[in-house]
Amino acid sequence: MANPLRKMKAKPFGNSGIDLPVIGQGTWDVPESGPRAAEAKRAIRRGIELGMTHLDTAEMYGNGRVELWLGEAIAGVPRESLFVATKVLPGNAHYHGTLDAAERSLMRLGLDYVDLFMLHWPGEHPIEETMRALERLVEDGKTRFVGISNFDAAEMLEAASFLRAVQLACNQVLYHLRERGVEHDVIPAARERGIAVVAYTPFGRGQFPRAQAAQGGVLEALARKHDATPRQVILAFLTRETNVFTIPKASRVEHVEENAGAGALALDAADVAAIEAEFPRGEKSPLASL
Ligand code: NAP
Q: How far apart are CA 160 and CA 86, in angstroms?
């Protein structure tokens, strides 16, 4: 498998002015309590050591318990080496609700600021109001960057239009080999506007790569060619565009090490074409989400 100690690639995170590692770490459904919680903390810290410093969480995850868990997992890690991202629930995303949610998240994470604060998905509150609150959080030093999640291309551009003092850093969307809809318009529109795209659920929650690899398909063939694993090939494929990042979630050290190994893997045009042939993009359809 591709060596996890090979240097993790980083690239510009949209127009934010900073570079971010291409592979980060998700935290949805981590075992935040019980016998596997400690191993999951070791796993995330191992990921940080290997350069996966973009840590994604949300107030929704475990009703705030995952933010608490993450705060414990990163305690003692130099703050400036991390990029911590969290999200406000749409139901809380009116102006004051957004500011309050950020305070609660910071408290649970044990941080003075997060690096990225996002709206989790479009909801009932006017997006202009949420964007004003996000901007205020930047002014107040509570977050460095602001973003959205589960926004289609038109919604993303509308949200961006309401920001005055800061730019929209990213849109976090569902993107994996069997769900490539964002390639039609979200990724190109974001690239044109200097907005990063963060691909969530890159393994489709872990289901299909195993079955597909077992059948000896293209992922297996490319893994052999690159001295990598099928999952590493998947992560390299999803992050092949200049503005796309991904955040696989893994709560086992060996999984984290495997995922980190994808951070130095580059596929050539023929590799990409071979994957595209086996996992077609499909017709343009409404944005899919979980
Ligand atoms: P995912 O990353 O596609 O899949 C997670 C599953 O894959 C887990 O069962 C994990 O197992 C397994 N896995 C990871 N690496 C592996 C490896 N190298 N070998 C074997 N199995 C491996 O799914 P996800 O958690 O839905 O998505 C990733 C992150 O995106 C989330 O955690 C969350 O932070 C974010 N997300 C955001 C939204 C949104 O609406 N914005 C929605 C969904 C997810 P183990 O845990 O046992 O290691």
A: 18
- Does the beta carbon of 46 lie inside 6 Å of ligand 1? no
CB atoms within 10 A of CB 49: 14
Q: Domain 17-212+238-265 in CATH: superfamily?
A: NADP-dependent oxidoreductase domain (3.20.20.100)
Size (the chain), residues: 290
| Token pair belonging to 277 | 């042939």
Ligand 1 atom with the smallest distance to the CA of 118 is 41
Predicted TM-score (pTM) of this structure: 0.97
Cβ(55)–Cβ(84) under 8 Å?
yes
Predicted confidence (pLDDT) per residue in 162-211, tens digit: 999 999 999 999 999 999 999 999 999 999 999 999 999 999 976 665 55
**Short-list 160, 234, 248, CA closest to 196:** 160
Ligand 1 atom at minimal distance to the Cα of residue 231: 18
